[in-house]
Amino acid sequence: MTERLTEVEARRASVQDLSAVTDAMRALAGVWLQQALGLLGGARAYAAVIERALGQALALTDAETGGRPVNGGKNGEGRPVLLLFAPEHGFVGAFAERLVEAALAAPKDHALWVVGSRGAALLEERGRAADWASPMATRADGVPATARAAAEALYKAAAAHRVGPVSLLFGQTIGGAPPEIRRETLLPLDPARFPQPTPGGSPPLTNLPPAALVNRLIDEYVFARLAGAAMESFAAENAARLAVMLTVQSNIEATLEDLTGVTRRLRQEDVTSELIELATGAEALGGARRRSGQR
Questions:
Q1: Cα distance between residue 61 and residue 203, in whole Å
Q2: What's the pTM value of the predicted model, to 2 decimals?
Q3: I need a labelling partner for 136 at 20 to 30 A (CA). Which of 2, 78, 96, 210 fits?
């Protein structure tokens, strides 16, 4: 009985240690999620400003080219690219697997680019190595560098005519809710996406020829969209991890409650056994003394 009690108490201590680790991970995920949600508004506003500017610049280009369509960005005649933003680390439940399954559902002619080591590893496990991979930011302030790395890789591949249409695949959380999966087209640009200038309004003052201005704004637009997708993904990763840690913590609390009950029962049984042994010993001793007195 004592040996079993020792085992249960050791297990209870291990579960308490796990609870402390889970608490720390839950707190950290909550902090990063709140920071990401706070920054998402700025990222979306930044992209909206670039979209309005592109709409105005495209109008200037239309006036100069007679309405001919503009080549929509840094994409050539190469393979279509699906750029997946995935978690960098684990403990996100089935979220990473869902993203990878969505990526694997893309047509076979697509090149799979991955931001996020966890996503790249899962793809490789399924027999589809990423055509390009880069780590995902592990802090909110690292998201711009992550987006910049992806943008530079896209520009380099486009210059070598290895990039066709580009789509983005990432997770999105609304207010910290369990994340959903989104897929959006990045390139080629759809001019209809951008707000058009108000008819009869004054054209903006520019210091560049319209075509050069459009190219500059396209670069900025691509970066804004990549940064937005990366921030959405960072928020979704932490929302998923927070949900997992809350579930784990609930299970740990239930396990601790059960182990505490078992510990109390075993201790009570030990005490009862000791009392029975004492009573039995006292009775045996008294009987021995009585028998000795009779002789």
A1: 12
A2: 0.81
A3: 78
